[in-house]
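Kindly review this protein for my students:
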Amino acid sequence: MSEKLGSLKWWLMLPAFLVFAFYFPRYLIQTLGADNPWTSYLYLYGFGFFYTGSGVLLILKTGACNLSRPLHRKWFALIVGGFFYFAIAHALWIYLAISIPYKGAL
């Protein structure tokens, strides 16, 4: 089994996930503050990037996704592209909400 997974040390992944899950939110709140709208965005998509990226790495390393097949390439592009599409759309939405003044009811 270790030859199939390559040289990546899979037993180090769980402690890395736990350390990241513990320190990442604390770092965001310490640097940006809890009231900053970008804190929740970076929290959401920081965790999403970390865990989605590790899942993509897992399916590529185990051979569950064969990128030489057109259908696998399509779904791989949908997973990766969908993540970045929603991250960019959400960032744009936050930026517009911060930068465009709201004058209240007309």
About this structure: The mean pLDDT is 86.
